[in-house]
Amino acid sequence: MSGRSWVTRTAARLALRYAATHPETVSKVIFENPPWDMVLATKTLVLGGLPLLRELGLDDGVDELLAYEGPATAEMWEQRTGILHRLGDRRMEMYLGPASRDLVLPADSLPDEIQSRAGRFATEITKTPGFSESLLPYLERLTQPALLIKGGFDPVTSPEEIALFRSTVAGGVYQYYEGAGHFVHAERPAEYAELVTSFIVD
Q1: CA atoms of 13 and 17, how far apart (whole Å)
Q2: In the 8-state DSSP scheme, what is residue 188?
Q3: What does the pLDDT look like over 47-83, one tens digit per residue?
Q4: Which end of the chain lies in a sparser environment, N or C, as judged by fewer CB atoms within 10 Å?
Q5: CA angle, residues 21, 6, 160, in degrees to nearest 5
Q6: pTM of the full predicted structure?
Q7: Which residue has the higher pLDDT, 194 or 8?
């Protein structure tokens, strides 16, 4: 995943932790394809890229990466995300729904220097103590209404994370967009805006 994209997903980790530990300051919380558990999220990411890796004959070593069940580490992160770099210019295909393959994201027009900063930020995150922590236990501490948005072709949020959200968060609302990918807000902007507005106002 590009650095800039991972920065936005990291915000979902911060949002969960903050909402759970400071409920008096957060009235509602919205998550879009979040990676709350790095082991699960990176496994889902590799699985998302696997069809394309196989199509291109670039899947050597994938089975070993998927078999890993240890804690989240910088090495695990580098190996699992690194294998997706083999896809080169086709890597973005795994993040978008079929109808959105020609989508140009606003971040794509940012200067290289800005995008480089995002990449460095993503790298630094893996060195922090919080990186290895699964935030799934925080879900049961959410007391405010929470909205989880999931694109059908999103390769980040795992089925396990979704299931736990749906079974644990009392005020949880789960919205699934079958044809969308990782960037639901950009792929289905009108529906996304209506959903988020309705959730916030109600």
Answers
A1: 6
A2: S
A3: 999 999 999 999 999 999 999 988 888 889 889 989 9
A4: C
A5: 65
A6: 0.87
A7: 194
Structural element, H or E, at residue 115: helix 112-125
Under DSSP, is residue 32 helix (H, G, I), strand (E, B) or coil? Answer: strand
Under a CB-based contact definition with an 8 Å cutoff, are residues 151 and 180 in contact?
A: yes
CATH class in words for 3-201: alpha beta
C-alpha–C-alpha distance, residues 83 and 86, integer Å: 6
Per-residue pLDDT at 11 exceeds 90: no
* Distance separating alpha carbons of residues 10 and 76, to the nearest angstrom: 17
Using a pLDDT cut of 70, give the percent of the chain over it. 90
Angle between helices 38-55 and 159-168 (to 10 degrees): 140
Cite the beta strand spans of the chain per DSSP E: 29-32, 146-151, 172-177
- Closest by CA to 71, choosing from 16, 33, 126, 119, is 126
